[in-house]
């Protein structure tokens, strides 16, 4: 899945204003760059930042493994949401990604038991890893919409390693219309940390070819990097950077309940989770992680032919019926209760009572990945259900986020 979620636009205000950042995950000095800090760390601290340094401070906090809970104008009650805070990292999308990839040096630890170090930026844009494409397979069935490819890359000639839920960067060959090298694009990793061959020598991606019509000219536009990857021939070497990302790291509690809500190529990190949980060779490779909890995938796709990894997903469900459940939202084939198309938010509304009970269990972790448009519908359904118990969903969701039990990566 292509992930541009670390970028966005600056907050507009007068240059002499001060803002208060509420941040968690940094030491009391706020200078975590010289120490290895736990990723999942409770407690927050306040940092006052002048407007002129908001971009630099946001990047610094993100690079040091901190998490911005909110930003508010000093002496004013208005609060800027976490999403807006994270988006303020850069005026230009790609510049922010490049800079954070180049400068980040912190190596936090995984959420639950804090045993493993999280690998970050082993390979940077200026010195990428060259990995050969081992395979490039179509995932969309006959009669489906568009093209989605599963690509596997060789890592045996370097030291690139990663955890489930992270992303890698791809620098496509060629130059842009200004004659400069193409910018890096981030894609969620679709394989476990051991790779599809369970030999620690590969990494896999799930990539949809971007194609749309220009609203003014009517010309068909194709994505630079997605077209490059979808057309890649086995044997061709690709510039790879990373890994990056901490938001979607899988809890390592084998008794956790894992709820996954995704659309399209948002399945990528969930494939990694599920393969780790249920594939025989993966279970043999991870004796300390034998999943015993409940995994539930709510997956939105346009047609049955677009159910990515369908056969393997349903095989796992058949083999582990007490531990794994799949709920599809097939928009062009199913109808919601109002007679319209069935989207993922409608499935969440149908199952809101069950989901609400699950998220009240401290062992439940929710992961949302895919199109940003589904978020509001999910929140509306959960708000309606939690209100029956007199609970304000927006406040409750914030407590879940602080506990790293509500994790979102959308675009």
From TrEMBL:
Keyword annotations of the record: Antenna complex, FAD, Flavoprotein, Membrane, NADP, Oxidoreductase, Phycobilisome, Thylakoid
Bilayer topology term: Peripheral membrane protein
Domain FAD-binding FR-type stretches: 126-250
Enzyme type, top EC level: oxidoreductase
A GO molecular-function annotation: ferredoxin-NADP+ reductase activity
Cofactor(s), names only, from the UniProt record: FAD
Gene Ontology CC terms: phycobilisome; plasma membrane-derived thylakoid membrane
Family recorded in the similarity comment: Belongs to the ferredoxin--NADP reductase type 1 family.
Entry protein name: Ferredoxin--NADP reductase
Species in which this protein is naturally found: Phormidesmis priestleyi
